[in-house]
Amino acid sequence: MSMSGQALVLGASGGIGGETARQLVEAGWQVRALSRRATSMPVTPGVTWLPGDAMSPDDVRKAAAGCNLILHAVNPPGYRDWHRLVLPMIDASIAAAHAVGATILLPGTIYNYGADAYPILTETSPQHPDTAKGAIRTEMERRLERAADSGVRSIVLRAGDFFGPRPGNNWFSQCLVQPGGPIRRTIHPGRPGIGHQWTYLPDMAATFLRLVAIRDRLSAFTTLHMAGHWDPDGTAMAAAITRVVGRPVRTIHLPWRLLGLAAPFVPLIRNLREMRHLWQIPIRMTNDRLRGVIGDEPHTPLDEAVRRTLTGLGCLPRAQTSQPGWR
Fold first, then answer.
1. Which of 114, 213, 268, 326 fits a disulfide with 130 by CB distance 3.0 to 4.6 angstroms?
2. Which element (helix H / strand E) includes 284?
3. Is residue 136 included in any domain, yes or no?
4. Number of domains forming the structure of the chain
5. 0.90 exceeded by the pTM?
């Protein structure tokens, strides 16, 4: 199958959306990005920004006209209004993909799973989520699976906690470090000695591109897991940050009990607390099925991935100016 064409990216201003858009452009794809703020978005090489709303089936269908791919990487900012917005957005993408014959790419999370699936997750693990957000993510994938019966193809690529050189809804840039300045400390959400799984977003985007190249050989609804970076005792990420910064960096543990006082009033904190259990159990995904499909998983060494991440987040000086529009 040809490794070029037209792709619509929903969520191109975010972490995985922006990184996948960049790599699609480098691979020769024509990329469109839908945004309500399209006229104010920075010039992005190879990307055409289109005004529209991911909640609107008409906007998504029009933007997807002639596209081979739809990357559904859009989420309500700050975890707000998930119950009201998330499912209509995936429905709009499914309707557009059906209309134009595009394949949907969905970045997946471990929210779908509950205690009966821990601690080792495979593609066949039961999905009985313990949280409202997990139930919504599970329903998103159910709708994609049902859409396969009507000819809509989709690939769900599940990964650990995201980190990368673009800001987004992730623990690394919203908790572990403070973007926009030198690193003074790291705030760790986990319990001492508990392992945690991380995924470097450029590696995830590269994995998506490999899967896109062979999508005609995959099932109509395909789910695959990445291994990413496994932190065996919860200290490896903080240690990498210290090595990259080049001086001692103090690590403190997130004061979950104090956050509980603010949770009723701050939606972001309330939603972070809902995911607290993911830091209290060493939950890990295996990538055996993925390796059977594409071979070795794209994998940037941890220190290099952290260096690029901190540079992109403005915590380290840039060695050189990046291309306009790409951060």
1. 114
2. strand 284-285
3. yes
4. 1
5. yes
